Amino acid sequence: MFINDYHIHSEFSGDSKQDLREIFEKAISLGLEDIAITDHLEYDIEGITDNWILDLDKYVQTILNYQREYKGKLDIKLGVEIGIQPHTREYLEAQVNKYPFDFVIASTHAINRHDLAWGELQKTRNKEQLQQYYFETVLDNVKNYNNFSVYGHMDFVTRYGGEEYRGLEYRKNADLIDEILKILISKGKGIEINTSGYRYKEDRFYPCKDIIKRYHELGGEILTIGSDSHIKEHLTMDFDIVYEFLKSIGIKYICSFDKMKPIFKKLK
């Protein structure tokens, strides 16, 4: 039995039409203790459309209402996934500070207004150059932004651009990754293990096993697991693979969050 799912998108995200109540009923049927709804909060990405603008007032109030309705049946956490860019950090922090979030995922979806998924960043960079640029940006973000719980899908730069961009060059970026992990640990921040890679034909979770092992070796303890689901059928998908891996390297706990504080739960 799985404990929770801490990366779930709903109809409030620009890339999902999933009804919230259906998510909650699915989570109950799976026997989950708690879940975090983490809809997208993006800002200033070239080509972004109005349906990507998160109505935070409506979103937060809706989740809070459902928390009351499902009390005693499912612990629903108010979360958000913020797409950080160096020039949007101040704006995003101001937005996050307005609301009583339990859990915030910081992610790098776009760099300098260009979304990784749209191919512009790949036009002028090969695989090695793009991965270095991506991790340099993540490093800048973790150095200069603090209002988050975990860093999301930390190496998913390999997801986009086609086959020539697949496969993480871990050794070539090891120093950058180490610096990122050390800063996260020093700030009391965690990393997310995101299973969506299996659905994007990468046959792995994000970040890769080497990064998770290194985070653990450096003393990192705060880990969440998220499906990154945009439809209810993807809740907890491939979590069995993650649980087995974590146990194999001596990790005994994953985290839930409440009011931005981690709660350690023993792996089942």
UniProtKB/TrEMBL annotation:
List, for all copies, the residue spans of the domain called Polymerase/histidinol phosphatase N-terminal: 4-86
In the record, biological process GO terms are:
L-histidine biosynthetic process
Q: Which InterPro entries match?
A: Histidinol_P_phosphatase_HisJ, PHP_dom, Pol/His_phosphatase_N, Pol/histidinol_Pase-like
Q: Which Pfam families match?
A: PHP (PF02811)
* Protein's pathway: Amino-acid biosynthesis; L-histidine biosynthesis; L-histidine from 5-phospho-alpha-D-ribose 1-diphosphate: step 8/9
Q: Name one GO cellular component term.
A: cytoplasm
Q: Which Gene3D superfamilies does the entry mention?
A: Metal-dependent hydrolases
Say if the entry is tagged with keyword Amino-acid biosynthesis: yes
Q: Which UniProt keywords apply?
A: Amino-acid biosynthesis, Histidine biosynthesis, Hydrolase
According to the UniProt record, what class of enzyme is this?
hydrolase
Q: What is its EC number?
A: 3.1.3.15
Q: Name one GO molecular function term.
A: histidinol-phosphatase activity
Q: Which NCBIfam families match?
A: hisJ_fam
**Protein's UniProt name:** Histidinol-phosphatase
Source species of the chain? Candidatus Fusobacterium pullicola
